[in-house]
Structure to design on (524 residues):
């Protein structure tokens, strides 16, 4: 598929963009393998055209430089992990000295705008199509949702009180130049409108058949409204009440949202990340993946070279600080992190964990279930493109509970109930009078190595500067090929200079600055 090389400031014919989307996806939503082609002259004629265009909104899920690992370079800035090999581009991002030119981080900005343009093309063309009304409503709902979804990540990483991101809708999508809003709240207002419209148009996930699971749905719209208001509340405390409102709407929507909690804390949290639970009641919105074309993140976290058995890439190693953070008796710890000597199953055989590659002596365990089975069960037979059929969550019901808890605490209300649901599932006792410190602890324990993104949490709480002023440490084992080898604690990444006036956002790639004529984020 030919990828646009310039950001949305190029004049792009909407139909041509949709040709790209249609080439990216087959008509079966869960089959992400590229199939077929169309021309702009014969498009926007049939229901199949509209559905195929909607499928194109999700094409980026199979893009290594998006949720495969691209955005994880930003997640990697947190104190939970370090880059697991010498890599100048990722180190520049983690050390907050990036220019935006680095290949690790220079493509996501424009790719989110590609999603926005695809959504705009749908919103221009689908309303006048003579197709099944139910399908039309869903496709339009998906377009409104995915436009807001793209802006959510753009504003999370690139916008603030000094400048938002160019707002591109169906009304101005063919303009050649754009400006940055004076404040990111203007983006939030647009996202709010889009998500509310999406919630009206989209069905509940329970209305979808097996082939449509993973599409945007009403609960996902409510969830991203809550997430958006959580960020907006940094600038307008009145938005905390909206966080609670939309979290409650997810809970009460009728779709049966709930934590996976069978009363077995040794297994319940771990099982959230099992293939068989890709679409469990805890699932809200995830990167849908399969073992032919999909998300490489699990393999990115797997042991580099995979002990000679499969191609792991060995990035993003847990820090000792994350390991030590967990409370005694928290079953999330073992579900999240492997340490030397831990017993685990690899390709059907039980073994003890060790690593000759881990910088910290640990590996993330959260997405490793596909590696328990023979390779052909869940993994791509092409080890050079190591995808699996495990979905990678973007929003879980646990996030709904903890966003609500945070919003209640910020309004001086009691948040014990949602926090204790999370704690009890992990095997921990209930607490009373939960504080913001309790909330912060639960978010770190619950979402390590997820796109919920601890770095973003630290930034919005104002905690990043202090957290990053300390070095990251790990365990240096005397014999890295011996699971029972003794270790010493060593510094694996030095303290970093985080300036909250600059580094709370990332640099917009310079090529996109040049193409669009917009201003760079201050200080970068």
């Amino acid at each position: 598929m030919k990828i646009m090389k310039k950001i949305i400031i190029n004049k792009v014919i909407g139909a041509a963009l949709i040709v790209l989307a249609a080439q990216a996806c087959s008509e079966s939503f869960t089959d992400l393998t590229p199939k077929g082609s169309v021309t702009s002259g014969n498009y926007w004629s049939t229901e199949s055209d509209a559905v195929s265009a909607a499928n194109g909104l999700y094409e980026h899920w199979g893009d290594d430089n998006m949720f495969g690992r691209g955005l994880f370079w930003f997640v990697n800035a947190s104190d939970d992990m370090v880059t697991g090999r010498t890599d100048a581009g990722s180190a520049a991002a983690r050390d907050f000295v990036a220019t935006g030119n680095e290949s690790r981080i220079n493509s996501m900005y424009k790719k989110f705008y590609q999603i926005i343009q695809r959504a705009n093309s749908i919103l221009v063309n689908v309303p006048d199509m003579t197709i099944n009304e139910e399908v039309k409503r869903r496709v339009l709902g998906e377009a409104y949702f995915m436009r807001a979804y793209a802006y959510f990540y753009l504003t999370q990483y690139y916008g603030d009180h000094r400048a938002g991101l160019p707002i591109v809708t169906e009304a101005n999508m063919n303009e050649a130049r754009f400006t940055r809003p004076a404040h990111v709240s203007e983006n939030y207002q647009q996202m709010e409108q889009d998500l509310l419209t999406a919630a009206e148009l989209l069905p509940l996930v329970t209305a979808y058949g097996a082939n449509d699971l993973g599409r945007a749905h009403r609960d996902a719209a409510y969830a991203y409204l809550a997430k958006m208001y959580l960020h907006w509340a940094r600038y307008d405390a009145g938005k905390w009440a909206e966080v609670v409102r939309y979290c409650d709407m997810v809970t009460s929507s009728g779709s049966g949202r709930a934590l996976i909690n069978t009363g077995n804390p040794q297994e319940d949290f771990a099982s959230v990340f099992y293939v068989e639970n890709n679409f469990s009641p805890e699932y809200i919105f995830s990167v849908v993946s399969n073992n032919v074309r999909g998300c490489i993140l699990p393999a990115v976290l797997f042991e580099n070279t995979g002990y000679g058995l499969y191609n792991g890439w060995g990035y993003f190693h847990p820090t000792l600080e994350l390991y030590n953070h967990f409370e005694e008796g928290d079953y999330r710890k073992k579900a999240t992190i492997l340490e030397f000597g831990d017993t685990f199953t690899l390709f059907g055989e039980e073994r003890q964990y060790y690593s000759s590659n881990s910088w910290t002596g640990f590996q993330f365990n959260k997405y490793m279930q596909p590696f328990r089975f023979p390779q052909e069960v869940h993994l791509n037979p092409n080890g050079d493109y190591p995808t699996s059929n495990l979905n990678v969550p973007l929003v879980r019901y646990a996030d709904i509970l903890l966003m609500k808890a945070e919003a209640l605490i910020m309004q001086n209300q009691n948040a014990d109930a949602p926090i204790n649901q999370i704690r009890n599932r992990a095997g921990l006792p209930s607490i009373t009078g939960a504080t913001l410190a309790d909330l912060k602890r639960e978010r770190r324990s619950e979402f390590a190595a997820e796109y919920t993104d601890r770095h973003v949490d630290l930034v919005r709480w104002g905690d990043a500067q202090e957290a990053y002023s300390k070095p990251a440490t790990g365990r240096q084992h005397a014999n890295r090929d011996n699971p029972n080898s003794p270790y010493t604690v060593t510094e694996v990444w030095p303290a970093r200079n985080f300036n909250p006036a600059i580094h709370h956002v990332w640099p917009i790639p310079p090529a996109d600055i040049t193409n669009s004529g917009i201003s760079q984020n201050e200080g970068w």
Summary: The beta strands are 81-82, 283-287, 317-318, 337-339, 343-346, 349-352, 362-364, 392-396, 472-477, 487-493. The chain has 21 helices and ten strands. The domain at 46-79+86-202+500-523 is CATH 1.25.40.390 (Serine Threonine Protein Phosphatase 5, Tetratricopeptide repeat). The two ends are 32 Å apart (CA to CA).
